[in-house]
Specification:
The complex is a heterodimer of chains A (about 400) and B (about 400). With about 400 residues, chain A is an alpha/beta fold. Chain A is built from 15 helices and eight strands. Chain B contains 18 helices and eight strands. Chain B has helices spanning about 10-15, 25-45, 55-60, 70-80, 80-90, 100-110, 135-145, 165-185, 190-215, 225-230, 235, 240-260, 285-295, 315-325, 330-345, 360-365, 365-380, 395-410; strands at about 45-50, 65, 125-130, 150-155, 270-275, 295-300, 350-355, 380-385. In chain B, α6 runs parallel beside α7 (about 135-145), α8 crosses α14 (about 315-325) and α9 packs parallel to α12. Classes of the chains: A alpha/beta (about 400), B alpha/beta (about 400).
Chain lengths: ~400, ~400
């Protein structure tokens, strides 16, 4: 049994990355929602950084937010109240995605009037009118960045940023697909850390690390003659139509999938690793994830470099797959049906973040489908601090032991 | 909204403290007829379930009858069977942390035989508008999975300040999509004249309702909070129909008569307070009547004033888009605080009670800021009480009354 991995130590690493950025004199804009257009901020010469929940934080929200506010929002607010957030030029909140984050933006403005609070409001549907609406919202946000923060949109920087993000997504998609075909090819924890690193600091250095891994995966798959099917699978996941015949190397192994919304993928991966270790099942791996900060972010199509940048960014955002903050439960269940069948999933870890409406409404129909497919499922209620770690790891350990014994 | 009479016989003192409206019988008859109509409409395949902030004039123009799950939630709450029905939804996997209107409606679909009125009749369409909260979409999508009825969402993104041209264009496009959806789902043609007529009828009812609310500026106030919450049923569910006008004509006449004769909703009005949010339906009589005994009346509340905007004449879809985009719940915290400060001033109120409803994040999150800001701007004190509108397990009557007691000590 290996030594348990500390989630706190990984958080410290993230903090260091941010500190490096500040030392580089980058001006940081913090964001919360996975489909925030990082290209736009880079085009204005800001470094967008994904904020995260601090596990060791005691509450400092009680005078401003009720306990039924989503746990992620409460944690972010407490960080700000205790001055534990990195130094930010601005913070961008999503509008129209969920009520907690919507109201959090208003509360933040009232409590911290000196902060630059930006809002990007998303349409919930996906049609031509929604595309036009979102493009205009992005244009308005860009104008705000120019007028309020004093930094102009640079087409050259936008194109560099769009290329950077496109390359990141392509590399991450490839690793994701390689892991579906051969989960042991690269640990899930390492995969989530690479993605998180890029989202914390979307730089050429972060990209380089993930590209190096993707290149190794390509070589490996080429050796095993799996490259064509990997590309077909990647295309299938981007278009929502997974190919029928996927040649898996180890169909006898448990095929575990993890899903949920704005759960920290690194955090859940750490606790999965610890549960594996406790169960003496080091060889078991998560084959596929459907989490907002990994799959749903990286399988979002990159903006087309030709055409109006705001329209292209809007088109990119609206292509985010299977996002529960968007209309279309039927379509999401249809996609899930394909995933369960065509990726040979046998076990499902279903994360449910505390007081997260989009997550919690999704659970019953997901469970029903999983039951229909006879998947072995564990439902893990959690908060972004992973405050009940022992119980979480205990549940995951029982899940793994039972799944592998079947 | 309509609810059964209190199950326990009110005490002698409570009956004396609170004056029952004569129009409550007409209200009961109007809503009973509406319930029968929804059952008939379901059988005739022309029933839609609709959210409370939905531009209902459009389905009305298609002769589609609307049933309101939120109103049904109020009935469930008043019947004190919220925990039972919410429990049925929880058995299906819906978290206890989710909206109790959603849970109770899902529970009633699962177990109609154990639900008041055997649940709402099965709909042929589910019409949601997210101008009141984001929960309505996943709730209706879950209902769609259970009933097979398709969902149409009128997407009205939250406003930041004034409505921009692209926001208006987007909402208008969503309304055009609604017309196509209704035409296809109910196999009927769109008739703009019918929509204009429905809007006029809706405006007339809104006007009558608003006049009744504004009459509460008088001292003594002719209506208390429970009166308004029960009497708002037709403005929510019969907007755009003649039945709403008929009821509010009689209702307003009684309210104006009370004003003319100096008759208050409570016998001895001493303290005038503002109420914020949906009420705890399971204790609506008990809560407000207990305070009425102490001379406390609530001449205004933020919730029932939500149905007070008329649809202007002109480009009808654009007008509807403007009115339904600008409901204050869709305009952020500042708009809500502005509204409440105006009510305190216009209705000469001495304090306020904010009901923090666990189920309703859009309405409730921000109330701590609201409390401070209202007091800063108006100088009147307020208190926050916690609970839920349907799920009585999340509410403590004693704690709520203690908090209000503390507020009264500051005022009296």
């Amino acid at each position: 049994m290996s030594r348990p991995i500390s989630y706190d130590s990984l958080i410290t690493q993230r903090r260091r990355i941010i500190q490096d950025q500040i030392a580089d004199k980058s001006e940081l804009v913090g964001y919360i929602y996975p489909h925030t257009p990082i290209e736009l901020f880079l085009a204005h010469d800001f470094t967008p950084t994904l904020l995260w929940a601090e596990p060791a934080l005691t509450g400092a929200y009680e005078a401003s937010l009720q306990t039924f506010c989503c746990a992620y929002s409460r944690n972010l607010f407490s960080q700000r109240a205790k001055q534990q957030l990195p130094s930010l030029k601005a913070i961008v909140f999503p509008g129209g995605t969920c009520d907690s984050l919507q109201n959090l933006g208003d509360v933040w403005r009232a409590r911290f009037p000196d902060d630059s609070v930006l809002r990007l409001t998303y349409p919930v549907v996906n049609d031509d009118a929604a595309l036009t609406y979102l493009a205009e919202e992005l244009r308005d946000l860009s104008n705000h960045l120019e007028v309020i923060l004093g930094s102009r949109f640079s087409m050259k920087k936008y194109q560099q940023a769009a290329a950077l993000v496109a390359e990141f997504r392509a590399a991450a998609q490839f690793i994701s697909v390689a892991r579906i075909l051969q989960p042991s090819i690269f640990p899930f924890l390492e995969y989530t850390r690479l993605i998180r690193q890029f989202l914390t600091a979307p730089t050429a250095q972060s990209l380089q690390k993930i590209e190096e891994v993707a290149t190794q995966m390509q070589d490996e798959l080429r050796k095993n003659q799996l490259l064509p099917i990997a590309e077909a699978l990647r295309y299938g996941l981007l278009t929502g139509h997974i190919p029928d015949q996927i040649n898996l190397q180890s169909k006898g192994e448990p095929r575990i999938m993890i899903m949920g919304g704005m759960v920290d993928p690194v955090g859940i991966a750490v606790h999965f690793e610890n549960a594996k270790s406790s169960a003496n099942l080091e060889e078991v791996e998560i084959a596929f994830d459907l989490l907002s900060f990994t799959f749903r972010t990286i399988f979002t199509k990159a903006p087309n470099l030709h055409g109006d940048p705001f329209f292209e960014m809007a088109q990119s955002i609206l292509s985010a797959p299977a996002e529960p903050t968007q209309e279309g439960l039927r379509a999401r269940l249809g996609f899930l049906d394909q995933v369960f069948d065509k990726l040979y999933i046998t076990g499902l870890i279903l994360c449910e973040q505390s007081f997260c409406d989009p997550d919690q409404f999704e659970v019953p129909d997901t469970l029903k489908l999983a039951e229909k497919k006879k998947l072995f499922t564990v439902r893990v209620p959690l908060d972004p601090e992973f405050s009940d770690r022992a119980r979480l790891e205990g549940r995951l350990q029982s899940f793994l032991e039972t799944l592998t014994a079947r | 909204m309509m609810s059964p009479e209190p199950t326990s016989k009110p005490s002698e003192t409570i009956e004396k403290a609170y004056r029952k409206l004569n129009s409550s019988k007409l209200l009961r008859d109007t809503m009973t007829l509406h319930i029968l109509n929804t059952k008939q409409a379901s059988q005739d395949s022309r029933l839609a379930w609709v959210t409370s902030g939905f531009p209902v004039e459009i389905p009305v123009a298609f002769d589609v009858t609307a049933a309101y799950p939120e109103q049904y939630g109020a009935i469930v709450g008043s019947d004190k069977c919220g925990p039972l029905l919410c429990g049925f939804a929880e058995e299906l996997g819906f978290s206890q942390e989710l909206c109790s209107y959603a849970r109770s409606s899902i529970g009633s679909i699962q177990r109609p035989e154990q639900s008041p009125l055997t649940g709402l009749p099965i709909p042929q369409a589910l019409l949601a508008c997210n101008n009141i909260c984001g929960t309505v979409l996943p709730w209706y999508e879950a209902v769609s999975e259970m009933t097979g009825a398709p969902v149409y969402l009128v997407d009205i993104p939250p406003l930041e300040g004034d409505q921009s041209p692209h926001h208006l264009a987007y909402v208008k496009s969503s309304l055009e999509g609604l017309i196509d959806f209704l035409s296809q789902t109910f196999n009927r043609d769109y008739d703009q004249e019918k929509l204009l007529r429905a809007a006029e009828v809706s405006n007339e009812a809104v006007n009558l309702w608003t006049r009744a609310l504004e009459a509460c500026r008088n001292k003594p106030s002719p209506l208390n909070c429970a009166d308004r919450f029960l009497s708002m049923a037709p403005i929510v569910s019969l907007r755009g129909t003649q039945q709403a006008i008929s009821f509010y004509q009689a209702f307003l006449a009684e309210v104006e008569d009370r004003v003319k004769n100096g008759i208050g909703a409570i016998v001895d009005e001493q303290v005038r307070l503002l109420w914020d949010n949906i009420p705890p339906w399971f204790t609506i009589y008990n809560f407000f009547n207990t305070l009425a005994k102490r001379g406390v009346v609530f001449p205004a509340d933020s919730y029932t004033h939500a149905w007070s905007a008329s649809i202007p004449r002109g480009q009808i879809l654009e007008s509807i888009a403007k009115v339904y985009s600008n409901v204050y719940l869709n305009k952020g915290l500042t708009a809500k605080i502005d509204k409440m400060c105006t009510l305190i001033k216009d209705y000469d109120l001495e304090g306020f009670v904010l009901f923090s409803v666990r189920s309703c994040k859009r309405y409730s999150l921000g109330q701590m800021i609201t409390k401070e800001e209202i007091t800063r701007r108006t100088g009147v004190p307020g208190v926050i009480i916690e609970g839920d509108m349907v799920d009585s397990q999340q509410y403590s009557e004693a704690q709520a009354q203690t908090r209000v007691e503390a507020l009264l000590e500051m005022i009296v």
